[in-house]
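# step 3/5: fold
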Amino acid sequence: MASSADNDNDSNTPDEPMVFIIIGKAYEREGTEGIDIHVMLRAPDDDSAVREALNALSEEGFLEADLDQIGTLNGQPEDEPHASAYKGALEGEVAIIRFA
């Protein structure tokens, strides 16, 4: 008798959108040096996360951004300002952390 194989693909799909962190540099004015940024937000996939991050940066007055890295967080960071940004992301906010 053949047994059916376990297929756990469905268990890899998160119940809630993932919290992404995007690392890059954003520019407020043409010809100026960019500001290092981290953007934290919830999104269903990385394409949506990038799109939402760019929209939020535009709303904050940035003209353009170079996004270098994207990843997901597996838990709440312990250190500020990332801990607060993570909580905001869980509540649906797009948190922009600036490093001046």
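# step 4/5: annotate
Helices lie at 46-59, 82-90.
# step 5/5: archive (pending)
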